[in-house]
Amino acid sequence: MEQYPNVFVFDHPLIKHKVSILRDKNTGMKQFRELVEEITTLMTYESMRDVPLEPVEVETPLEKTTQYRVPEESIAVVPILRAGLGMVEGIHKVFPTARVGHIGMYRDEETLEPQEYYCKLPEGIEEKTVFLVDPMLATGGSACDALSALKKRGCKKIKFMAIIAAPAGVRAVATAHPDVPVYVSTLDRELNENGYILPGLGDAGDRLYGTK
Length: 212
Ligand code: PRP
Ligand code: URA
Prior knowledge:
The chain is of the alpha/beta class.
């Protein structure tokens, strides 16, 4: 993925360790949800590296000092429903005041084309750094359309975070939205004929919510 300067693939032992458990078909719903949260928290640390800070005056027990904070109102998380919901808590753990928007997309199982069915975003989203999150980046259709939907509603600074990605999905997002940094914890081999990622982890929404 060297040809895409805005794509960051994490290569951290702790993330690899957790992703290997996440993939295991014997990992149950509770542990799956916890791992999605933990991996998201680890990814958030790195993907927030360049968010703007503001100076604040702090009085320590010893003296006054100028320190730096991420403005509370400056960050929004937008999960792609439904599987993206599993990542929100992972960001809230380290940045609890992030506002949350929701965008609903589902893949038509025949055509694999994404369909938008819901969109509700926090007020003032145009000025925030928006983290669009979805554990799976497969063909890239859902992410590309969700990014276009956010841009249409005025978002200017968007980052996209996925836990597992297929090369085709990364290429699709990086080509359609070269201005959007893409953070993926793991780049997998390929898609199968049904648009599932290999080796992947199966259907993230079903595994998070026990629907199958
Ligand atoms: C999954 C996943 C992504 C999408 C990825 O959602 O969570 O949103 O598929 O596939 P793509 O890159 O080919 O678009 P799904 O449509 O299964 O909905 P769900 O989250 O409700 O399970
Ligand atoms: N969505 C999933 O949940 N898993 C895949 O492998 C592909 C799309």
